[in-house]
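Narrative of accomplishments. A recurring question from our advisory board has been how the design workflow behaves on a single, concrete structure rather than in aggregate. To address it, we present the structure tokens for one chain from the evaluation set, followed by the sequence designed for it. No filtering or post-editing was applied between the two.
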């Protein structure tokens, strides 16, 4: 059974037309799905009963089945293990900040990139998610935040998502078409109306897709997972560097900044005595200095995973790394590690039926 969330508005309108329904039904049902966040035809009270029954018979409205629901001890992180229709599993995370509610969404079941310190990379690749499966993760968390939504649910006085980061399981640019289709669906001003600038897509550096993304002049934020500033170390940590070494990747990053004039972020998981050294900090500053002022570095002490022995940087080493970049004129932020007690931090997501406890450090 096809998911209703895998249909574009045009495809859905065509299906309703085949059923002999008037054109206004498309807008009516689209509003129920993406504004009122209905998760079944039964909730669509102003539709004729026969139409509700036909929708229920023809389409799936719940492709994601939550099977494990975990919340961090501090209450700031909420992780869900979802089962997909074919039995595969993905994890998605909601992070609560003072004024922000950020959903970290998966684009694949597993990942083919093989980054050695990432739990998703350690598990390997199962399959791409469909656009509808990506969309549904966002809608699931929006429903959780706003159980009684209205068209102004993200306005004054209403809690709802403020940001979506495609940094969960998978490499979004390896599943480019479905990822962009999902963002397009969610940013539709006549639907969910979540502006493109509220999305951030993270890539390990698939150069052809970075170039395509730049050429499309999207308003979506881009983050590149760099993690090392020399080819030998980056290849050791991120096997994709064999195909797209730093010289090739940085050329694509320059083209992106020149084409879009948008800020480019670099992600850096700090691993003690591996990539948190003064040598790596100086190499990084030299590598990205030509991109100033449209660049920024987000560093986060490594989150533990079962199959990587690297240690987390100390607070002192992280501060020294940050200072070295700032002295070179590179803006740098040290991100707070979140959800470690439920293995919900960056690089920790994995389909884990038993959700084994993470190795804390």
């Amino acid at each position: 059974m096809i998911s209703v969330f895998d249909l574009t508005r045009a495809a859905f309108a065509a299906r309703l037309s085949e059923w002999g329904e008037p054109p206004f039904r498309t807008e009516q049902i689209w509003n129920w799905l993406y504004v009122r966040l209905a998760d079944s035809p039964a909730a669509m009270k102003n539709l004729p009963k026969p139409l509700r029954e036909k929708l229920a018979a023809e389409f799936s409205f719940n492709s994601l089945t939550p099977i494990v629901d975990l919340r961090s001890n501090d209450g700031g992180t909420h992780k869900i293990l979802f089962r997909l229709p074919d039995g595969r599993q993905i994890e998605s995370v909601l992070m609560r900040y003072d004024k922000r509610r950020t959903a970290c969404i998966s684009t694949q079941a597993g990942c083919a990139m093989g980054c050695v310190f990432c739990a998703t990379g350690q598990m390997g690749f199962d399959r791409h998610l469909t656009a509808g499966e990506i969309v549904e993760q966002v809608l699931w968390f929006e429903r959780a935040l706003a159980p009684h939504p209205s068209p102004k649910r993200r306005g004054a006085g209403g809690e709802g998502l403020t940001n979506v980061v495609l940094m969960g399981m998978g490499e979004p640019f390896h599943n480019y078409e479905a990822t962009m289709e999902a963002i397009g669906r969610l940013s539709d001003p006549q639907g969910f109306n979540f502006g493109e600038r509220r999305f951030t897509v993270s890539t390990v550096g698939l150069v052809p897709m970075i170039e395509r993304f730049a050429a499309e002049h999207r308003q979506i934020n881009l983050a590149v997972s760099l993690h090392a500033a020399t080819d030998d170390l980056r290849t050791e940590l991120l096997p994709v560097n064999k195909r797209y070494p730093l010289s090739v990747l940085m050329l694509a990053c320059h083209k992106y900044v020149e084409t879009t004039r948008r800020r480019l972020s670099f992600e850096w998981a700090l691993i003690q005595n591996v990539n948190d050294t003064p040598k790596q900090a100086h190499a990084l500053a030299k590598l990205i200095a030509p991109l100033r002022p449209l660049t920024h570095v987000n560093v986060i002490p490594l989150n533990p995973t079962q199959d990587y022995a690297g240690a987390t940087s100390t607070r002192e080493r992280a501060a020294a790394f940050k200072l070295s970049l700032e002295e070179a004129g590179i803006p740098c932020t040290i991100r707070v590690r979140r959800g470690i007690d439920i293995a919900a931090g960056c690089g920790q997501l994995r389909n884990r039926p038993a959700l084994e406890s993470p190795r804390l450090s």
